[in-house]
Amino acid sequence: MNAPNAPLFLVYGYSGAGKSTTFTNVGQALGRGFTVYDMDLIVVNEQYQEACNNWLLIAYINYLCGNHTILFGSVPYGYNLELSEHILLFNPIHKLLLHCNESTRIERLTARGGWSEELIHKGLAASRDLYTSALDSNIPIIDTTNTPVQDVAHQIKEWVLSKV
Predict the structure, then answer these.
(1) What CATH number matches the domain at 8-163, 3.30.70.60, 3.40.50.300, 3.40.50.10170, 4.10.520.10?
(2) Sheet hosting strand 141-143, strand order edge to edge
(3) Which SUPFAM superfamilies match (predicted)?
């Protein structure tokens, strides 16, 4: 089962970047022909990789039905698409990074609760790594620090439409 022309859209970023806040707005903005998912919604017992595998199958079924899929997730921390055997179903994989400054991330994670100071510091380092990697790979980046959710959704919509 190989679909060399099945595109996949991935909006990723470390926790606190605004993925869960934005994904429903993107779905509403894009409308028919696009399905938008927050990858965290089907995680059971912290089995992120199993959920990732399932999301890729869902995305492929969407493709077979004529729809484009946009996944919002913490990739690769939590979900590692490259470890899934189903990744071979997709080409191209379009990626966009959501990012915010460190003080905003600290505020967001603290307000969320359940984030120790140590976890927040690890998250800040991981988000810096994602940002640097995106820059090095010419992956588009949207800064959500002071950008209203509707504007972020509009930018993502324009990015997706530029790729279809």
Answers:
(1) 3.40.50.300
(2) 34-38, 68-73, 8-12, 93-99, 141-143
(3) P-loop containing nucleoside triphosphate hydrolases
